[in-house]
Amino acid sequence: MSETPFIVLSAILFTIGCVGVLTRRNAIVVFMCVELMLNASNLALITFARVHGNLDGQVAAFFVMVVAAAEVVVGLAIIMTIFRTRRSASVDDASLLKY
Amino acid sequence: MAVPLVGSVVVALLPARLGGALTKQVAFGVSLLTLGIAAAVGAGYDVGGGFQYTEEHEWIAAFGAHYALGVDGIGLTLVLLTAILTPVVILASWDDGDAGRWGVNAFFAWMLALEGLAIGVFAATDVFLFYVLFEATLIPIYFLIGGFGGARRSYAAVKFLLYSLLGGLLMLASVIGLYVVSADSETGPTYLLSELSRMEMDQNVGRWLFLGFFIAFAIKAPMFPVHTWLPDAASEGTPGTSVLLVSILDKIGTFGMIRFCLGLFPEASQWATPVVVALAVVSVLYGALVAVGQDSIPRLIAYTSVSHFGFIVLGIFVMNTQGQTGSTLYMFNHGLSTAALFLVTGFLIRRRRSQLISDMGGVEKVAPVLAGVFLVAGLASLSLPGLSPFISEFLVLVGTFVYSWWVAVIATLGIVLAALYILVMYQRTMTGVPVPAVVGMKDLTRREISALAPLLVLIVALGFFPQPLTAIINPAVEDTLQQVGVSDPAPDVPVTAGPGEEEESH
Amino acid sequence: MPVVDPAAADGVFSLLWLVIALPALGAAVLLLGGRRTDAWGHLLGVATVAGSFVLSLVAFVGLLGRGADDRAFTQHLYTWIEAGGFRVEASLLYDPLSALFLLLITGVGALIHLYSVGYMAHDPRRRRFFAYLNLFVAAMLVLVLADDYVVLFLGWEGVGLASYLLIGFWQHKPSAAVAAKKAFVVNRVGDLGMALGIMLMFATFGSTAFAEVSRVATEATDGVLTALGLLLLLAACGKSAQVPLQSWLLDAMEGPTPVSALIHAATMVTAGVYLVVRSNFIYENAPVAQTAVVVVGAVTLLWGAVIGCAKDDIKKALAGSTMSQIGYMMLAAGLGVAGYAFAIFHLLTHGFFKANMFLGAGSVMHGMDDDVDMRHYGALQKAMPVTFLTFAMGYLAIIGFPGFSGFWSKDKIIEAGFEDNLVAGLAALLGAGITAFYMTRLMLMTFFGEKRWEKGVHPHESPKVMTVPLIVLAALSVLGGVMLLGDWIVGFLAPVVGEAEHHTPAVPPIVMTLVVVAVVAVGVATAWLLVGRREVPRTAPQRVSVFTRAARADLYGDAINEALFMRPGDRFVGDLVTFDNAGVDGAVNGTAAAFGGMSGRMRRWQNGFVRSYALSVLVGALVVLVAMLAVNLA
């Protein structure tokens, strides 16, 4: 089976995630899009691992999943806190850290 | 030598939670201990024996950097100066740290740290170590100015830091350059002064590296046109800080010129001599003239220092024994006289709560001892014969004259201007009818007198008997000049040795 | 030409250092002792100087007991400065020249110290006054005992310092403080010459000791010797208040009167003459410099005399006279071997009679409640007989009344001047006439005529402690001429300055003397006609000739200095300060401001929106990607 469809799928998922991060305002959705991008890269990693016939890519993918899990924990906690204090989950509302 | 360095830092930081009085006493004790050790080193120094008390450990092998210390006559002179001034400054600034941003402990801790680092700088015989210590001295002085100074202290501190860092970075570039050069030579990468000075170097490379070092030292010294940080720093810092800054730290600049510019790049030094001499002469006159026009006492003293540093640099680069001995002596004497001047005017300013000459008048009437000390310090600053700075200034001028008579003529104008700025200041602050604000001003206290007394005694004693210092400086100067490869020109009409003239008994 | 070639000191001469050490010790004790020494400070001050005088006298007698070729001794104390070939020994040189100065300084000094005990009795800072006076004597002794130019420079500046301190002694008076500063700064200009001269000496000869320089002086080129002579002359001009550095001396009269007598009449201001005479081995080989000395001397002797004619302040009139008399000495010193001895001779007699007159003026002021305006004096010869009589002795001496000391010394200088060239001689002769005029005017206004006293002033004779020194000095003023008996002084100084061969002058000396006396008589008569016969107005008349106005303004010396140096200097300094703040520092701060502005604009990019940050991350990633592709494909 050719690896092309997997790569294409990975690219499509990454692009969707990327566009989502840049355009959506809801922090939860942005967050989901980030996860989407991570998973797109996971898919690519695994595909290449398969193509090269070794486990390096899979190991990397596991690392990415671990990082993603940690990120979810911290990220969701931040979003929750922001929501509690500001009654909003929009990323544009939290623009205090500027010049 | 490393003992007081480490000891002072550690001991000063330890009692950080204890009361102010104890801190002061401990700090004073440590500085006295350092003075004791330095004096012992000075006493044990073998005149004419080159570098002594050397110590050498490998530090970063890949760079060829060593932890290497040792003093020759020039370094020893400055180490002694540092060791003498620090207790004096601590005693004189007894209460100056109370009002600062971080409290008494920090004030004295930084002072001691500075002393340790400065001694390290003067004793470093490894370029890399020198560079690290050179930059490290910026930290304490930055906090001393920024934490315990006047209204615009932050401005002054940042200005000082940026100036110094700029110079430091240029020097870093040269330090890296030295590594590259030495890595190519057969000795392999090294920063040891003893090995670097023997190394062959390409002419152009040497000149570029020289420039990096020289600009850094010129900023530090400070020379025209990179001097403007000094007046700000001096007028914003406490008097004690100013003393440490001008009397000790700035000496690193001129010390560095002798040790590194001349020691490592003899060819480039000679190549640059005309320009440096010109800059030095400009500094002499420019500093003096601008000093005449100042109304703020610390700024005035700062500008006089610009003028004096001009003399020092002049002496270094005229490349003869008189000039360089004079310069080294000048560093020591200028340290003493300027310290006395800064401290006594500091006491005055503290009493009057103003730095401005125009706010004073008639102080002599209410505080004669203060006025007397002020006068002696001022006269030392204008190089009155019989006080120690005269000998050094005169030697520098003699050296300059031998180098080129018209340069000496121009530089000698500086002594007229010196009389002008000091005496105008004395006249406006001390004489006349006391202005209302100084009426009731208290004379110097016992503590203040005891802080100033050692300085004045040294100024007078060395004015009449400089032999102890010249004896240790002369051989070191000869070594330096030998490294540069020049020798004194013979007089046109040498005095032929007459019967029994030269062999006078001692 | 004589070479300085001293033998090592032994016997009484090994006590030379003590001559200096005594007053130095006195100064140190009085300054450091503080108020504890107030009670007996003045006594110590007198005692130390008197002790020095005794020592000087002993040494002098010892010197007389030796052969003429065996009268120079050196005492090596220690090595002062040493750097490479530059070596300065702290040594003392005692030879006939120093010996005379030693006697003058300690002798007149001791008398003036004694006088000051009375004069300063009511000053709360009397102890300090004596400390400064002692310091001065010590420095002056260093100056004349030095055997090396650098050591001489030490004394040279030391007396300058003492002069500064003493002129400004009453420093609560702003005018005194300004005068003190002016004196020091003007002297520093002279020191410039001294310092450069010493440097040139070292560069040329490799040594600055008298002995060594004198031995090889002839071998240097003419240019170097001329330059040396001119530089030392500049130094001498500063210290001795010669034109063009004369302006400080008149202001220096702000100091207490004993100071004016000791420093600004008898000793310090003559240091310039000493320097020229001491450096005879240089001047003998530099005719151009010698001519310059003569010119300076001639100009100053007239300049000072003219100023003296117009002053109403008794001390300033005397100061003008001092300038003028030192001009005589300079002139003589510039004449070379023929004049050195007479320069020193006149210096000594002038030391006696001028100190006498200054102290007399002080005594008058003491009685007149410190009023110095002669227009408020008059008819004092009854009220203060001792002062009057002693002053009269000084007066007769200075105008050159036959038989008095000034007659011998001035006459010799005029004679020598005519022998050298006509202009110098005429200047000296004219000066003698003007001297007679202004001194007679001073006498008449002070001691004769009507009482013009301020209300409430009751002149009275001064106490014994003040009149005794006056009497001694008056005696010396009268008898000072004995030094010329059988040309003793010429022979005595010959080992140091050389001796001119004897030749018959074109005009017989007796004719010369008569001419001088005639000119003096004319001067006295003119004064009598202009001042003595008329009522002296109590305020100075305003409608006076251009010449009087010029003389009152010190011949515009200050105005010239101000227009030429001070005002442009002020402006230049002001501009330079502006330049430093705006130009140099402005460039630095400008750089900082430029960086600040740039970062101010750049921080706008930090707008706080997560999305724009994410976009910039994406763009960055793409750029990196493209760059990598480009590199890999290329």
From TrEMBL, chain A:
<dbReference type="InterPro" id="IPR039428">
    <property type="entry name" value="NUOK/Mnh_C1-like"/>
</dbReference>
<keyword id="KW-0520">NAD</keyword>
<protein>
    <recommendedName>
        <fullName>NADH-quinone oxidoreductase subunit K</fullName>
        <ecNumber>7.1.1.-</ecNumber>
    </recommendedName>
</protein>
<keyword id="KW-0874">Quinone</keyword>
<dbReference type="InterPro" id="IPR001133">
    <property type="entry name" value="NADH_UbQ_OxRdtase_chain4L/K"/>
</dbReference>
<dbReference type="GO" id="GO:0016491">
    <property type="term" value="F:oxidoreductase activity"/>
</dbReference>
<keyword id="KW-0472">Membrane</keyword>
<dbReference type="Pfam" id="PF00420">
    <property type="entry name" value="Oxidored_q2"/>
</dbReference>
<comment type="subunit">
    <text>NDH-1 is composed of 14 different subunits. Subunits NuoA, H, J, K, L, M, N constitute the membrane sector of the complex.</text>
</comment>
<keyword id="KW-1278">Translocase</keyword>
<feature type="transmembrane region" description="Helical">
    <location>
        <begin position="6"/>
        <end position="22"/>
    </location>
</feature>
<keyword id="KW-0812">Transmembrane</keyword>
<keyword id="KW-1003">Cell membrane</keyword>
<comment type="similarity">
    <text>Belongs to the complex I subunit 4L family.</text>
</comment>
<comment type="function">
    <text>NDH-1 shuttles electrons from NADH, via FMN and iron-sulfur (Fe-S) centers, to quinones in the respiratory chain. The immediate electron acceptor for the enzyme in this species is believed to be a menaquinone. Couples the redox reaction to proton translocation (for every two electrons transferred, four hydrogen ions are translocated across the cytoplasmic membrane), and thus conserves the redox energy in a proton gradient.</text>
</comment>
<keyword id="KW-0560">Oxidoreductase</keyword>
<keyword id="KW-0813">Transport</keyword>
<feature type="transmembrane region" description="Helical">
    <location>
        <begin position="61"/>
        <end position="83"/>
    </location>
</feature>
<keyword id="KW-1133">Transmembrane helix</keyword>
<feature type="transmembrane region" description="Helical">
    <location>
        <begin position="29"/>
        <end position="49"/>
    </location>
</feature>
